[in-house]
Design goal:
By secondary structure, the chain is an alpha/beta fold. A hairpin with a 2-residue loop joins strand 1 and strand 2. Helix content is about 25%, strand content about 15%. The protein has two domains: about 40 residues, no CATH class; about 160 residues, Glycoside hydrolase/deacetylase (TIM Barrel, Alpha-Beta Barrel). The protein contains six helices and seven strands. The strands form three sheets. Strands 4-5-6 form a three-stranded parallel beta sheet. InterPro entries: Glyco_hydro/deAcase_b/a-brl, NODB_dom, Polysacc_deacetylase_ArnD.
Length: about 220
Amino acid sequence: MRRGIAAAVVVLSGVAVTGCAPAGAMSGASSPSPVAAPVAPPPPPAPTDLHPGTNHAYLADAYAYPAADVHAWLVDGAKAANYPQRRIAFLTFDDGPSNSTTPKDLDILRAEGVPATFFYITGPMGLAKVDPAVPHRALAEGHAVCVHSRSHNYHELYPGRRADAEHVVADHERAMGDLRGVFGADFAAGCYRYPGATCPGEGWPPLMRRWPSGASTGSTGTR
């Protein structure tokens, strides 16, 4: 009498392997557990990638300074914690970005080896109309990006020449949404520069409570 043949399929590391065994040989035997394929660790971030929770790439960590520290240095001088022993220059650019001027600025900064902080207008006057490659280049080349409002509209932000806290905060939140749309959800500007370089009138105190020193991660500087 011919012996029957039963087919068995075993999954090894995601590959189906078919084998043959005499009938009855598999009866009562427990099926082997699938062997999980090893999971490769994620690749390390590139130096030009955004450092999550900041406004700059990993390569700028060496010369990025918390805005809270810089604010304390300006207010308290040498009494402030972490006060630098050497002078530090912070180069900043307001407005923009633009498809014409910003790449030229980046060319000069790269040639001179100097980092800077760009305070962007994120609405139709700036970020909204620029090629996304421009702000991505700024970040990848070691510069920081901060907020200079979304609208840059004095009448909206400072009606009656007095800062309107609700308007400024709402404008800032929209600006942050614009920047995260470009750089990703992990982007955090950390600094806000008021249009006109100052925040006029009685609206200043509540805004200072909102941003007492520019927040966590701020400008890039060079010693």
